[in-house]
Specification:
Layout: E1 6-11, H1 15-26, E2 30-36, H2 40-50, E3 53-55, E4 67-70, H3 77-86, E5 91-94, H4 101-114, E6 118-121, H5 128-136, E7 142-148, H6 160-175, E8 180-188, E9 197-204, E10 209-215, E11 222-229, E12 232-237, E13 242-248, H7 252-261, H8 264-269, H9 272-276, E14 281-286, H10 294-308, H11 316-333
Parallel strand pairs: 1-2, 1-4, 2-3, 4-5, 5-6, 7-10
Antiparallel strand pairs: 7-11, 8-9, 9-10, 11-12, 12-13, 13-14
Length: about 350
């Protein structure tokens, strides 16, 4: 398929699905051929907007379709994805991969049987700051994440763990090359029948730790990610697309020796910023503003995987692993008397 425009479809054109459709319609590598939704009026209006054909059932998609985004509610992922995968059609399935691990395994088995590729929509992998962080090849020892959002009526078919926290769980699993040893969880329902605020501490077998907090009952949004290693630390504000790196500076050893020789009374009165601006600590702003928006980058990466016949950046196995950890977090909540 390399070099030719791909015929693509979007199944489910609610809020996020309409964004998928718009991005495909604007991408010169893609031809948005079909939009599919059980709401016929919504399918028709989205199709008219982008010059596509409207369908009400994904089973009506022709065999010649090259790639499909599945953006239906999570509980319907397996129902929609498996017949398409059995026909050998590559899919991008929005996160979480499925409503439960049994469905996730059925999806993976269908893909294995036909050889169709699966990408999973963990869009935070495509944040410019996260990409830069991965390129640094730091070895994480401690990660701290805060993902807070005001309450919205959509996405209440799942709790905050599978709605919001799963983004950070995927990032942590992507960055920490170790198995999870234990978790400690606190949280519960505030506004809905499912959990709305959750905090978890994750301990890995290699000694790395992560503290992760997610809320959909906050007054202001926040998406912050910090990773500490023995080489320094990276702080990302994913809401504002801003980041910085803090490392030992070129004068670290010399200044450490100078500090060791100071009289304790002088050391107590020394201005900390004097040491930071003298080369002891190096702070670098990450340049992130000119890169693609994350969802654009994610869909473009999916098209590349389909065209070149390579594994997507976020595979079905990655999606299952994040779902498994999210399920483990949510199961631990059941042991609490919230």
């Amino acid at each position: 398929m390399s070099g030719r425009q791909l015929d693509v479809a979007v199944v489910g054109v609610g809020h996020l699905g309409r964004i998928h459709a718009k991005i495909y319609a604007e991408n010169p590598r893609a031809n948005l051929a079909f939009v599919v939704d059980v709401d016929g009026d919504l399918a028709q209006s989205t199709a008219r907007e982008h010059g596509a054909q409207a369908l009400s059932d994904p089973r009506e998609l022709p065999d010649g379709i090259d790639a499909v985004s599945v953006v239906v509610p999570t509980v319907f992922h397996a129902e929609v994805a498996i017949p398409l995968l059995e026909r050998g059609i590559p899919l991008l399935i929005e996160k979480p991969l499925a409503g439960n691990l049994a469905d996730a395994d059925r999806i993976l088995e269908a893909a294995k049987g036909s050889g169709a590729r699966i990408a999973v929509g963990h869009v935070e992998r495509f944040q410019p700051g996260v990409r830069r962080l991965r390129e640094m090849d730091l070895q994480p020892r401690f990660i701290e994440c805060h993902r807070l959002a005001p309450f919205q009526m959509r996405a209440t078919d799942v709790g905050v763990v599978h709605d919001l926290m799963i983004h950070d769980l995927d990032l942590i699993l992507h960055l920490v090359d170790s198995q999870v040893e234990s978790i400690d969880v606190a949280g519960g329902a505030v506004l809905t029948d499912s959990e709305d605020v959750v905090s978890v501490r994750i301990v890995f077998e290699n000694g790395a730790r992560a503290n992760v907090t997610a809320s959909r009952a906050s007054l202001k949004p926040m998406r912050r990610f910090r990773m500490f290693s023995s080489e320094g630390y990276v702080s990302l504000d994913l809401q504002e697309n801003h980041g910085l790196v803090v490392r030992k500076g070129p004068n670290w050893d010399a200044k450490r020796a100078e500090l060791a020789g100071l009289d304790p009374t002088r050391l107590g009165s020394a201005a900390p910023m004097d040491w930071m601006t003298s080369g002891m600590v190096e702070v670098t702003q990450l340049e992130l503003g000119s890169e693609q928006r994350p969802l654009q980058a994610e869909l473009d990466s999916f098209l590349t995987a389909v065209q070149d016949g390579v594994e997507p950046e976020v595979t079905g196995v990655d999606g299952r692993r994040a779902l498994e950890l999210a399920d483990r977090v949510r199961a631990a909540l059941a042991d609490q008397n919230w």
